[in-house]
Amino acid sequence: MAFENGIFTSESVTEGHPDKVCDQISDGVVDAALAQDPGARVACETSAKGNNVLLAGEITCDGEFDGEMIVKSTLEDIGYDRDEFGTNWENTQVTQWLTQQSPDISQGVSLGQGLYEEQGAGDQGMMFGYACNDTPELMPLPIALAQRLARRLTDVRKTNVVGYLGPDGKSQVSVVYSAGRPVRLSNVVISTQHLPDAEHGQIVEDMANYVISEVCHGWMDDDTIIHVNPTGRFVLGGPFADAGLTGRKIIVDTYGGMGRHGGGAFSGKDPSKVDRSGAYAARFIAKNVVAANLADKAEVQIAFAIGVADPVSIAIETYGTERVCPEKLERVVRETFPVKPADILSHFDLREPHQNGWSYKDTAAYGHFGRTDVAFPWESTEKVAELIRRF
User: Fold this and answer.
1) Half-sphere exposure of 340 (CA within 13 A, CB side)
2) C-alpha gyration radius of the chain
3) CA–CA separation, 348 vs 352, rounded Å?
4) So which residues are the catalytic ones?
């Protein structure tokens, strides 16, 4: 979507949020399976409550990995290592309900099997990618700031700058737009888990000094309203306070509500699932279109039929900000970018991410798009020169 005038709000959550805990565990399973077998098929859901974690789904892998170890090491890395937080990795019980991928699905995504010769999409559905020139990373400002706040919350906790923080936390940013451009922040919200003896006034002061001012300077003014732990207390958090589930933060994972979403989650899925790889390809297209200055905003939809290689449709919406013919833009995109499942996997080398310095677990907190701390291949602007040449 193109937001012109008014206030737009986006939120993010820290890696200790119960749903994000589950995303990281599920993507840890994806990483472990692909490390053993780059052709592995994975659809792993995680549910967490208290000191109980359930892994459920379908995995076909020519190799072995330790699901319980992945769960416990993920909880420990996040910081669930003391009983005061309700969940402690040392006491966690892991249940695994895992079977192999259905052969009916497998034949549709295996080369030379099914009704079509080419590798087809792992499912039907539509995926969206979005880019705009709000920020240098070509992301909407509300979600960009919300993600940075969530990441900053974790950083000050793990480096002991603020020693009483717990792993769970949330951020929210409200941005005032005028004529399609971000102007200022009307509200900032931080909710952070803390140890029982931390005083509310100290938390407010520390969040203002060490988190909010570090991220939001330049966008706040005297009228910006800041809320820190608005209930007054946030001791119990994570999977103890709220059950967690993979795939329940799909708007946090993407564009913060600025731009549409196809509805499919990413984490826990190997890249043959176009919910994931198709969304990465759509972001790649949208980002390159905006980076090439062909439009100020671009939303790309790609849709697939299960088992079929060619997308059933590709649509590009530029909200009247385009500087080129929209019909030609769609044609050039089809001719320039990888859009078939096998081409997407090959172009981004999605089956062997560790060989290229990133992991799927890296995507599972603080967003899949617009990241500057990890070199995700779909964030490349390598097609800019070719797009400019074509126009």
Assistant:
1) 14
2) 21
3) 9
4) 17, 19-20, 45, 58, 170, 234, 242-243, 248-249, 269, 273, 275
